[in-house]
Amino acid sequence: MLIEFGSYLDTRSPHVPYARVVLGCSGGIEAGRRASAAYAKRYHTPANEYDSTLWKLDGVMEDLQAVYAIGTALGSSGIWPNWYPNNPFKASRDKMIKKSKPAASASGT
Questions:
Q1: Which of 51, 93, 94, 104 has a Cα-to-Cα distance from 7 of 20 to 30 A?
Q2: Which residues of 5-35 are buried (b: 16+ CB within 10 A; e: fewer)?
Q3: Rama region for 87: left / alpha / beta (φ>0; ψ in -120 to 50; rest)
Q4: What is the CA radius of gyration of the chain?
Q5: How confident is the model at residue 65, as a pLDDT?
Q6: Domain of life, per the record (predicted)?
Q7: Using CA atoms, how far apart are residues 106 and 109, in angstroms rounded to an integer?
Q8: What is the pTM of this model?
Q9: Domain residue spans in the chain?
Q10: Residue 42's CB: how many other CB atoms inside 10 A?
Q11: Smallest Cα–Cα separation from 83: which of 95, 75, 73?
């Protein structure tokens, strides 16, 4: 299935605006159509299996290291992701954070 720009699946994908501006395509639209047709032919058949010549895993370790570093930094700091001001979900997030913080003792420590 070739996802055309402007289709429902295209507009629902958060990566598409980035792809439109930054990513190049080897072989153009026709190469994409051929790859899509070959995938559709293999899909849910015995031929639908991992093929190391087709799957490009370059950069997977770098991605995992970056995600781990971000998770470790967030988990070991007092800084938490939050919504932008005036976002309708911000009040719920702030309420949740307030509930999770321990109350201060009478001595102020």
A1: 51
A2: eeeeeeeeeeebeeeeeeeeeeeeeeeeeee
A3: beta
A4: 23
A5: 96
A6: Bacteria
A7: 8
A8: 0.38
A9: 1-55, 56-104
A10: 14
A11: 95
